[in-house]
Amino acid sequence: xxxxxxxxxxxxxxxxxxxxxxxxxxxxxxFGKNLLTPILTESIWLKFLGKFDDAIxxxxxxxxxxxxxxELFQANTxxxxxAGIALLALILIPGFLISAxxxxxxxxxxxxxxxxxxxxxxxxxxxxxxxxxxxxxxxATGVAFLSEWKSNKEFEKLNSAxxxxxxxxxxxxxxKNLSMEELVVGDLxxxxxxxxLPADGRILSSENLSIDQSLLTGESEPVEKHLISANxxxxxxxxxxxxxxxxxxxxxxASFLITEVGDDSMIGQxxxxxxxxxxxxxxxxxxxxxRFSSNQETTPLQEKLSVLANTISKCGYIAAIMIFxxxxxxxxxxxxxxxxxxxxxxxxxxxxTHALVGYFLYMVIIIVVAVPEGLPMSVTISLALAMRKMxxxxxxxxxxxxxxTIGSATVICSxxxxxxxxxxxxxxxxxxxxxxxxxxxxxWTSLTSKNLEAPKTPIExxxxxxxxxxxxxxxxxxxKLVRIGNSTEGALLLWLKENKKDYAAIRANSTIKxxxxxxxxxxxxxxxINHGSEEITLxxxxxxxxxxxxxxxxxxxxxxxxxxxxxxxxxxxxMEQAAxxxxxxxxxxxxxxxxxxxxxxxxxxxxxIQDPLRPEVRNAIADCKSxxxxxxxxxxxxxxxxxxxxVEAGLAIEGKTExxxxxxxxxxxxxxxxxxxxxxxxxxxxxxxxxYRIVKLLQEMQHVVAVTGDGTNDAPALKKADVGxxxxxxxxxxxxxASKIVLLDDSFSTIVKAVLWGRALYxxxxxxxxxxxTINLSALVIAFLGPxxxxxxxxxxxxxxxxNVIMDSFAAIALCSEEPRKGLLEQKPKMRSESIITKTMAWxxxxxAFFFVIAMLALLLGMKNYGWFSCGLTPNTEWEFSxxxxxxxxxxxxxxxxxxxxxxINCRSLSASESGLKGVFTNPTFLAVMLLILFGQVxxxxxxxxxxxxxxxxxxxxxxxxxxxxxxxxxxxxxxxFRRIRKIKAQA
Length: 988
Fold this sequence. Notes:
Elements: H1 4-10, H2 21-31, H3 44-50, H4 55-73, H5 79-97, H6 105-123, H7 128-161, E1 166-171, E2 174-179, E3 188-191, E4 200-212, H8 214-217, E5 223-225, E6 242-243, E7 248-260, H9 266-272, H10 279-292, H11 300-332, H12 346-370, H13 374-392, E8 395-397, H14 401-405, E9 411-414, E10 426-432, E11 435-438, H15 458-468, E12 473-477, E13 480-484, H16 487-498, H17 503-508, E14 511-516, E15 524-531, E16 534-541, H18 543-549, E17 550-554, E18 560-562, H19 565-580, E19 583-593, E20 601-610, H20 617-626, E21 630-634, H21 639-649, E22 659-661, H22 662-666, H23 670-676, E23 682-684, H24 688-700, E24 705-709, H25 715-720, E25 723-727, H26 733-738, E26 741-743, H27 748-789, H28 797-815, H29 839-866, H30 886-906, H31 924-943, H32 945-948, H33 955-965, H34 967-987
Parallel strand pairs: 9-21, 9-24, 17-20, 21-23, 22-23, 24-25, 25-26
Antiparallel strand pairs: 1-2, 1-3, 3-7, 4-5, 4-6, 4-7, 8-26, 10-11, 10-20, 12-13, 14-15, 15-16, 16-19, 17-18, 19-20
Helix pairs in contact: 4-6, 4-7, 4-12, 5-6, 6-7, 7-13, 7-28, 11-12, 11-27, 12-28, 13-27, 13-28, 19-21, 27-28, 27-29, 28-30, 28-31, 29-30, 30-31, 30-33
């Protein structure tokens, strides 16, 4: 790490006034940009090929390869078969001998099918079925890959956004808020509690600085940091003078000089060494990967669906084996029902082998259909959509778990300032002895002519206190003044600006000896200065804390008198009046350190600050109430101010508010607090640990809790909550790191929008689940019963593959692209233990699947026994028990597919109150997928021919099938109608 002296040699004024624009350009060209080289990830083509390395896909590949070879061995010459075996050996042998090639074997087998297919053509025995299986495999893996790739891009975009921290930087003597990427070696940075270090550097000055270095060291204990020597050469995390990128300020303040940026920083050097096997290095690797890689941890809903998918898969495996045995048993009695067929010649052996491979392939396809690969895809698509929509709605999702959990929130514990209010704090009233100065008063700017560096009157001391006893700054951007730092202090600086006072000059001309920074526990801030020949401490903070510490009060002429009961009475009356008008009141006092003085303060007066309520908050809180979500406002304001804001926001009712203070909370046992929580609306004068306690107790009461926070001390509550929501504008980096969602606009209404999308995500997955379980159940039953009826397997291998593509890929995209429906926020939140499959869904799944089975088997029996749709064509009499001709197969196959198309529309509705057809034309993605499925089915039937074992249908056939299959919608709407009637009768 470079020394301060080295940096000052290049940039002499960098430690006092910061860098000039020319010096910034020189530094950037000399030392580089403050950017980290991205961590290397697996290449895109390897990710695609890796999609083939799946148990089901491997089984399917083996079955398809066997199908190719059976066709080759049936050719007139065996040379083609041996050529195929040689090709296969060329692929498999390197894979088994070289471990690096082993994961690529499944993908190689998939593409190996192409030369095998052409060998079949050359031999006069092409396997269209084997080729089509391979195409279906590549299509299915391709859709899954593209969906996941697009989602990963979304996650990476969001992950990079969370690294865009801002740093208070002094350049050319002015304080600016700059993004981390803009910083260069030699920049002078100001740090406060909650900041994240944007680069490596050395301390110039500090006040009680405590740093969290766990990202680099793994140690959770805070580390004290301070200046040892400006010319020190040593560095490392154990050096008290050295600060490192990615670490966080837990307490205190400091100024430091950047010495290393980008890959030259310690975190950059570690990132470049990812993969080294040393144990210490590995622990650092893990922390770095967690920090800089896309956060895609498994969510509770994904885990729940994974268990469900495993259960369905087991049932599918059992059903597939039973279907295989049924086909085998029926096939053995192919010649006569009372006699087992035993092949006696080579052609018969090949026929039997071909049939067995066909049965095996059919069994594999049944497994493919039964295993719900679409479930993970549906979650991925839904999460990506929810994240994208939530980001547009100003919610930056940092952890995937938050997307679903926020939709289940039963309680929202929200801050007031900036979340329910606009965070546009304005000083509007100054209260001193026997004087109340309003913003509308002509004397509001009377300080213009005063010399604040030699204050005499109470208002002058208040103004001087506001300028010096502060860490905030103002920056001019595009002709507007922007506050940097604490918004309350920013309001005071704007008041000084209105009075044409340069706070920066006043601050620079004051000799500051010590700063006691504000903390939520103390609720005051102090700065000790040398003022002339005496030492004076400037204090500001919560009025009740200030008053309790004062024994005297400054008069209008600057003299000091004892604080008596009359003064206290008039002060409290003025404060209560301001608080009842939803104003925040800030007290100001001084302590003159003389030989005979004690620790008592002298009261100067008060400034009242107004922060208007956000116009959308009242409606947002009303939405929460209708959604069954309890809102608790947790604020540091006094009870009167908090109640006034609560009433204005529609959260509280005048005279009926369930409000407690931090002191009241401290005196209660956990059980007593739990008695208050169901009706609690406001917690006033709150401390960060109060918020943590409230969250903990609510969770013990089985609530799903969302909590907002902006300060470093809010981090425990943000981590403890089911969903921690930090403030994007006013929040510290520590708070953001502890949260799962960052509210980019700090607005309460954004939380409500996030809840809406969280609920929509859950419903979309329920829609897909209802559709998939319906098709799973019906397809398995039809495939199982078909052989026992005495017909060929009702679906061919390729038909089942197409059905699987519809079920897993297209349906996931269609159903998981639904926007939140109207009235979604009027439902009660989902409880933790509630099953994702509701009673209504279970009824719909079973009844619809049963309907499909009855309809399809009736059609099958009609075709077999009565010749329905035979069109005078003769049945196929090859080695299969199949009395159906190609036209009948086309009708049967198309009927089942169109049943599913109508059922996708039906599954858009999960309740009796809404039709599946409602708003169907408002979702272009859904309509596009539906048209794609219909186009694909028409293409297969009209062009598929011998590959799919179908024949083209006429317009009348298509019209009849469309009309007949639409009965699914009619059946669903009739059932919904009767459920609505039953519900009305139950409520009567």
